[in-house]
Amino acid sequence: MKCLIIGDRHVYIDTYDIYLEQRSALLSWLRENTDIDFIVETGDFFHLRKTVSKKFISDVLQKEFEFFTELKNINPELIYYKILGNHDILSENMDSLLKVFNYLDNVEIIDHTKEVDFSYKHKGVFVPYLNSLDSIDYKELENITSNLDTKNINILFSHNFPYFIGGNDIVLPKKVLNKYQRVFLGHYHNYIQKDNVVIVGSTHQVRIDEYNVNKYVFVYDLDTNQFTKFELPYTKYKEIIIQNEHDLQAILSDPTKREQFEKDVRDNYVILKVSDLNLYNQIESSFNVVNAHLKLDQNIIDNTLDNLEDGESDERLLNIEEVVTQEVENKIPLYFSDLTEQDKEELKNEILQIIYQNLQIPHKSIMDKQLVFDKLELKNFIIADDITIDFNELKNDLYFVKGLKLDDVKSDSNGAGKSLLFVKSILYCLYGKSRLVSDKQLFNERSGYVKLTIRNNYTGDVYEIERGIKKEKGRNKDKLVYYVQIFKNGVNISHKEKQATQKIIEDEILNKRLLTNLYILDGSSFTENFFNLEPSKQIEFLSELTLLDFIDTVNETLTEILKGSNKKSSDNSLGILGKKEQLQSQLQLLRTQLEEENEETIQKQMTEINKQIEIYHKEKQKQLEELSKEAESYKKTGLQKKQELQIIQQNLSKLDHNLKEFLQQAKISILSHIEKNVDSIENIQNKYKNLQDDYNKQLKEADTKWTAYYNNTNSKIQKFKKELNEKIALISKNKATIQSNNKLIQQYLNKIKEFEQKKFKEGDLCNTCKTELKGNALKNANSYLEQEIVNYTKEVNTLQEQNVALENQIPVLEADIRKLESLIKEGEDRINTAKERYILKKESLKNEFNEKGKFYKLIFNYIDKVNNIFYNFSGILQYPQDIVGLDTVISDLNNQYNKLQQDILKGKELYTNKKSELDIIHNKYAAIINQINIVKNQENPHDRSLKLLKRSLDVVKQKREQVKKLEKELTKIIREETKIRLLLDIFSKKGLKQKLLRRYLNALSNIFKQQILSYGSGSIEFTERNGKLNVLLYHRGKLKNFNDLSSGEKVRYIMAFHESIAILFQKIYNLSCNIRTYDEILANLDTIGTSEILKSIRKAIKNENIKVFLIDHTGLKDIFNENIIYVCNYNNKVHYINNKENFIAWVYPYYRDNKILNNEVKFYINNLLQNIDNLDEYVKNNKNNTLEAGPDLMQIF
């Protein structure tokens, strides 16, 4: 089983011809090679999918459709797999124009990760382009890969970078790729094979940097796991080589060659290779080479650089600014020809501005970091309680920092706190670290700080860096918190996170390597020899020390500016080359369009259309004249018809008038006949009125009688009902009273019974009670009870009598009620009977009235119809039959009416016919008028074409203007490109950096030789020692054996080396280290060695204007005449005293009270005091300068 694998095709306007050639060649090849089972295209069929015309895309898709149709004819079983690349995808949801082919049965568009079984033992996995959002497809790939059957031959096809190339999006890892027998990848344009991975590459040179890269297609045999690659001949780049002046003149002198060359250099795909910049400048001045790609022979640049190596010994070649400026001046003529001196100067300043401002090389950044230490404050730091060191008060250039332990007999000056003040505290404040001391030992009261005040001499900013420990309230108890904070000009610029605040200190304030004002040299570190290091280590050390690693950053920055950033969010993501390519593409597209849209052709078309417009106007005028004649004819006929219609209308009006007169006369005739044969209308109305009044009078009398009877009878009934209700209520009341009385009677009977039971009898009492009841007490008690019984008995009898009376009254009341009910019923029956009679009377009166008034009503109704004769003539035909002769009158009138109606109908019919004829004529006239308006308003069909041509002409002019504008922009961008290439030339990794490092290494060696000889010059003994040192030295300062040197020689070597570093740095950047702290460098030196080292230090102070703090623990007897900073330790408390006078005033009380136990210290103080006449007065005068001792801290440590 075999498959054909095709790489990225990147079809675009400028590669369309290549696409057609490859398409044709592929079909021919497949006709001859019929053993191909399927084809895989690895993605990026399109190139710039969003910046091409719809017509171009439509043409390409049509060509592909025709290709797939022909492919099916060649081999119906063959499947074509198209993987979507990043250039094919229009959106994040994998939309693509190529999906239009999904409906074809021989094409499959791969837009998601999927498995395909090629045969029972061959399995393929397809993966489209994955960006950082395609986690679903990537997880699917991992899932498929983890479940692969190893018995099968598994092949992966994808449009993604492998692990060994990398990219901005998802990269296929090695652990995934290793699971497949073979992997074929698109996306990367150059062919690469690594292990089982084959990067197919593109089918032609897509970018300029591919112009000499071979391109291939592949036939892969799945059974043998072997592939064969076939080289493709297609290229869109043309290479023109001009080696010398003779080649250029041969082109310029031959018109044909010159014309072809001029066309070529305007082409967007020409590689112009010249061996000399002067040749290129001549070409640029003679031709428009805006779109040609310049390839300058690298040998020219190398030779030029070799010529610049003259004058290596010049110290100016060490200064970074002067070196860069010189490089720019030398490179400008190579890249920009025919410039005036003024132009060269302006261009130089422009390029230097890019270097020093945009690229941020140390020129400015070091100047920004010229820091000066103003003040150091310690609070409870290790064994320092409350100390402030004001560096501005220390006016001398050299200070000996001496330590004195007053209360320790065995100790020397070590351990007093010298390094604590001048090394540990500063390092801890700046970096949060301190040598040989744990964090728990830093603050002796679990609360304290170190504060360092730093002033920026360049900007004037003042920084306060404070680092310490403090108590904060916790949930249950207080807790200790380490903190760091920064104040800039009094404003807190710290971050909540300590690491972020530390980054501000190191990057914004110190920048570690750029802190040049403080130099700490530790005597315990004199073990390493720089000149015995490997060259690579020496270069690495010098590169970091002299800040030349910035060149690597500059090179990356320049490359990013040139080629663009890989960061999608970057403003410079396109880069100068990308912008240039974009402009060139736009220019090429515009020029192609301008070739198709010729102005002369458009003008000819406009002339032809103007002729057609003139012909059209003549024909239109002729048509309007014919229509106007026809309209005038219809107008004349219409006027005649209108006059006839008006005559008919007048006749109709007369007939209508006659009809109204007839109806009026008919009305009069009928009413006259009625009055003549019946009575006058007035008499008839009066008779009917009298009849009606009599009826109303009788009806009213009946109403009055009925109302009077009803009211009288109903009044009596209401009276009986009231009396009835009263008697019913009285019966209810009597019954309630009887019931209440019965309850009281029962209560009274119960009381009587109770009192009967309470009576005392003689036999009922015991003897005790009898004796206690004396006199008539018993008798009186029984008498009271009997009286109560009598009273209650009377009440019972009264109530019973009342009940009897009430019960006797009830039957009487009930009899009255029955009588009243009978009376009420009788009254209601009488009312009902009277009402019936009343209703019958009213009905009788009504019938009588209707019967007597019937004739009059008929007369009145008919008179109403006669009065309405104008609206309803047929109403008079229903006349009263009792009127004599009325039928003859009505019949005669009806005949006359019908005759008038017939005449009117005939007139209306004639009017309607004439009106229809007039409407037809009017409509025809209106139609012609409308047609005339249509013809008048009709747009000339050629006007639109003329407008389109004018617009096309305007577009062509706009495009020409746009071409000029783009050419200017392109010229500007090429100038920018040339400037960046010039800078890349200067800052290339094998250019300026290596050159400077070689210079710096040579300079460091020479400076070191001078320094090692100058340390201690003037002493015979030291000179002899120095001679020994010189014997060990050879070329470039290397030592045969560093350990062969004595301690003093090692010190002088290291001092000389570090002094050489400082001198070199000063020569490079015009900067020097203004504060140097030497920590115990004089240890283990004899007196002569110490003296000579001090002389060398004083010499450096004089020559370099520096301040030196020499931390030392040599004997006190040797330093009576030196500037001394005393670090005194008493009772494990450290004190800082900045001069001898303050020290005497501070130490005298301890000396006087015999608290100084160290004999050496006591001897030193004794010698000091001998020179003072009045100690009490001396101490009093210097008392304000003394520093009181703090509390005892021994219990903490």
UniProtKB/TrEMBL annotation:
Q: In which organism is this protein found?
A: Deferribacter desulfuricans (strain DSM 14783 / JCM 11476 / NBRC 101012 / SSM1)
Keywords annotated in UniProt: Coiled coil, Plasmid
Protein name, entry field: Calcineurin-like phosphoesterase domain-containing protein
**Residue span(s) of domain Calcineurin-like phosphoesterase:** 1-191
Molecular function terms, GO-annotated:
hydrolase activity
InterPro entries, A to Z: Calcineurin-like_PHP (IPR004843), Metallo-depent_PP-like (IPR029052), P-loop_NTPase (IPR027417)
Instruction: List where this protein forms a coiled coil.
Output: 580-758, 782-837, 883-910, 946-976
Q: Which Pfam families match?
A: Metallophos
